């Protein structure tokens, strides 16, 4: 069978699996990987690639995942060519953009044996041990890689269905909007949402949502295009900012960079100026959720002077402001405030389907906030 066919066959068998046929140790170790997949999805992809290689080449020691090792193989090539595309088609939320082997923990020249694998840069010791134990079970105790792969897919399918149930409930949730819904109410709702843990992606989605609603209403954006949001993680991220608007000639026109709980200081502005030396952009926003945006009034004055000088020297507008202040301004141009709430909810779900930055608890908390209002 071809490599892709092996994965497809395992996926089909996973949909019909009797879990009683799977060893308890396998269930336990894979359970640890699935429980931690949102913080380390690369391990799941790397395990899939390893199991696939063992099925293709039973004599290959899959703990030797690099050609640098004697009798090793290139797991990265196999992952890039087969596993990553398969995950994009079947488990997009947990797919790497190119390869799991671009992450430091996976790509290092460390054999995945129990002894040497202890040096892998994975903070979660239990997670690291589970990953190494699965490979040890296969290589040392001759566990069948096919069974392990099928149960891994069974667990991913189950997790994906749980996600889809949450997305569906959120989309269909009937919220009776209060008759006194106004701009301040919306800002209060967003402020509460931004306060929950691991929420740096939420302000990006909020600003993107307001752009999406108003984009066609302003002459400034005529013949321009709003670029779809990119995955926010450092290994996947590319481009100039968090939100980007391009000309019809595919040149950057307006860039928005968003900071979460970080004050705007002169160093951030200097970084922006340096970045703009390589691109011809009309306007660059740097927005933050940090209260009052700046550390103090002196810092704000200093930054204003830098921005003014940049405008004189380069003809580029840099706008430094707060997220909520910016939203307050743009929300005035919306006729129906509920349109923004619907758009923000839609984009939360859309982002959650293709990345692990939006967690289930982000969406569940947003549902509670909407219910309370």
Spell out the key features of this protein:
single chain; 373 residues; alpha/beta; 5-stranded mixed β-sheet; 14 helices; 5 strands; 53% helix; globular
Brief digest:
The chain has 373 residues and is α/β, with parallel strands linked by helices. The chain has helices at 3-14, 24-35, 41-56, 75-90, 104-107, 125-139, 145-172, 183-194, 201-214, 266-276, 297-314, 323-331, 337-354, 360-372, and strands at residues 224-226, 243-247, 252-259, 283-288, 317-322.
Description:
- Helix content is 53%, strand content 8%.
- The chain has 373 residues and is an alpha/beta fold.
- It starts with a helix and ends with a helix.
- Residues 233-237 have low confidence and may be disordered.
Radius of gyration: 24 Å
Total beta strands: 5
Instruction: Give the helices and strands as they follow along the chain.
Output: HHHHHHHHHEEEHEHEHHH
**Total helical segments:** 14
Measured by DSSP, the beta-strand proportion falls in: 5-15%
**Percentage of residues in helical conformation:** 40-55%
Q: Supply the helix-strand structural class.
A: alpha/beta
Average pLDDT level? 93
Biggest sheet record: 5 strands, mixed
Shape: globular
Strand order of the largest sheet: 1-2-3-4-5
The oligomeric status of these chains comes to single chain
Termini separation comes to 55 Å
Low-confidence stretches: 233-237
């Amino acid at each position: 069978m071809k490599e892709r066919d092996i994965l497809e066959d395992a996926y089909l068998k996973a949909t019909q699996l009797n879990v009683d046929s799977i060893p308890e140790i396998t269930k336990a170790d894979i359970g640890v990987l699935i429980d931690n997949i949102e913080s380390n999805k690369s391990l799941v992809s790397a395990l899939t690639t390893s199991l696939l290689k063992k099925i293709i080449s039973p004599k290959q020691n899959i703990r030797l995942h690099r050609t640098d090792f004697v009798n090793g193989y290139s797991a990265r090539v196999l992952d890039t060519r087969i596993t990553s595309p398969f995950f994009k088609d079947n488990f997009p939320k947990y797919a790497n953009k190119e390869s799991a082997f671009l992450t430091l923990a996976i790509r290092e020249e460390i054999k995945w044996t129990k002894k040497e694998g202890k040096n892998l840069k994975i903070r979660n010791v239990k997670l690291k041990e589970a990953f190494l134990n699965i490979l040890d079970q296969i290589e040392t105790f001759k566990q069948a890689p096919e069974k392990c792969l099928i149960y891994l897919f069974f667990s991913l399918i189950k997790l994906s269905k749980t996600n889809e149930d949450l997305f569906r409930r959120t989309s269909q949730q009937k919220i009776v909007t209060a008759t006194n819904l106004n701009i301040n109410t919306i800002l209060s709702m967003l402020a509460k949402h931004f306060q929950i843990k691991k929420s740096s992606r939420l302000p990006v989605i909020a600003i993107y949502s307001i752009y999406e609603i108003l984009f066609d209403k302003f002459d400034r954006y005529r013949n321009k295009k709003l670029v779809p949001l990119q995955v926010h993680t450092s290994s996947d991220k590319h481009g100039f900012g968090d939100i980007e608007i391009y000309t019809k000639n595919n040149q950057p026109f307006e860039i928005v960079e968003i900071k979460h709980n970080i004050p705007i200081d002169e160093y951030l502005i200097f970084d922006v100026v340096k970045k703009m030396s390589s691109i011809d952009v009309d306007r660059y926003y740097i927005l933050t959720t940090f209260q009052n945006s700046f550390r103090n009034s002196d810092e704000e004055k200093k930054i204003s002077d830098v921005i003014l000088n940049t405008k004189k020297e380069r003809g580029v507008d840099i706008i430094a402001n707060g997220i909520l202040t910016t939203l307050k301004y743009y929300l005035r141009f919306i006729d129906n405030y509920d349109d923004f709430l619907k758009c923000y909810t839609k984009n939360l779900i859309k982002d959650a389907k293709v990345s692990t930055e939006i967690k289930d608890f982000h969406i569940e908390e947003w549902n509670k906030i909407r219910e309370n209002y």
